[in-house]
Amino acid sequence: MTGGNHPVLAAFGNPLLDIIVTDEAGELVEKFNLEKDVAQEIDTYGTGLYEKVMEKTSVEYVGGGCALNTVRVFQWLSGVKNESVFLGGLGTDESGDILETIVNRDGVQTAFAKHQDLPTGHCIALVDGAERTLCANLGAATKYDTSDLWNNSNMPIMQNTKVIYVEGYFLAHSFETSMELATFAQRNQITFVFNLCGEYVCEDISYVENVLKILPFVDIMFGNRSEFDIFINTVEAKLDTSSSVIKNLRAMITGEGVDNLDVKIENICESPVRSKPKSLIVVVTEGCQPVQCYSIGERLKRISVPVPELDTDLVKDTIGAGDSFIAGFIYVFIREGSLRDCIEYATWTAQKMIQQVGVTLPGLAPERHLLDHDLANKKNIKRSASCGQDSPSCNLSIERKKIKS
Hints:
By secondary structure, the protein is of the alpha/beta class. It is 36% helix and 20% strand. The protein has helices spanning 27-31, 49-54, 66-78, 94-105, 146-149, 154-160, 168-173, 175-187, 205-214, 225-238, 243-254, 265-268, 321-334, 339-353, 368-376; strands spanning 9-12, 16-22, 39-41, 59-64, 84-87, 89-91, 109-110, 113-115, 122-128, 131-137, 163-167, 191-195, 220-224, 280-286, 289-296, 300-305. The strands form three sheets. Strands 7-5-1-11-12-13-14-15-16 form a nine-stranded mixed β-sheet, sandwiched between helices. A hairpin with a 3-residue loop joins strand 15 and strand 16. The protein is globular, with a radius of gyration of 20 Å. The relative contact order is 0.14. Mean pLDDT is 82; it is low at 379-401.
């Protein structure tokens, strides 16, 4: 599935410029009355926080946002420049120039929709020892219309890609564009991948309704156990959906009673776009517990893959662990690895990345020769998928913080 000069992975999400500064003794947290050591969305310009941070002499810039993290880590794994492309909304300001330079330097091709009336989205990380107070201003990241998608330069990119990945936060503000991507993928036999992304968006009824609308087009769906639980609870509490659909969804995600249930794709969602060979793969992660994968087609297939232990002393930052997991999966998936290969390498990738501060790429190239040699000697290849998410069950001292990114 690899090859050529075209990106094989196209990712859509909310691009953010992560601005990392030291905030000794929590000076800025106190001055701006911020909630310490959590993620929050605030008007960083109106409050004056952005201006104050820019007065600092030592400021570090890193590319951020779920899908952007994934393509950057994918490029680190690949080592082939422009094997992935990122698409999203960007401002025409200095922050946008900095972010685009960072992403291109990491080997990712970019096709931003640039908006003159909105600033580039950013996330200020105020670091005080082990505490990281995150302040996000999404700006232009929340705007990406279908007119931004179908321009002359994007069309050849999209026609040659093998995987289209859409993060849930992108769908939350650009549903029409997400549906355009889903139907385009279906027509052109491109694998369409979707990630739920966060617990709080799964409580939003509009978001949940839109996920159900796009679900018939999804080939691979990622999420952790908590996200899926909240998603199902929202469906059950707020939507007029048949009890059989809820029963099948809950059984599939939780595994409760799944051995005695004949779960078929038509019982999960209305799926007129699917032909018989097509199936939905759902990957449920739960921290250090085994990754559970379900392939729902003519019949249900299930695989459970253990997560290796990692010394907690090696862990520096769990932000972006799930995004890195997806990158590891897609890297193997594109190379036609088995489901188990995808999950195991995804886990390895996530565990490598949480040994970094922020989603900064390791200085050393990954051990690609080991993976490539392993795949070359395997037969009976199956296409599948996985996503990894961190959780408190890993006994990590650092909590994962999620924002709309």
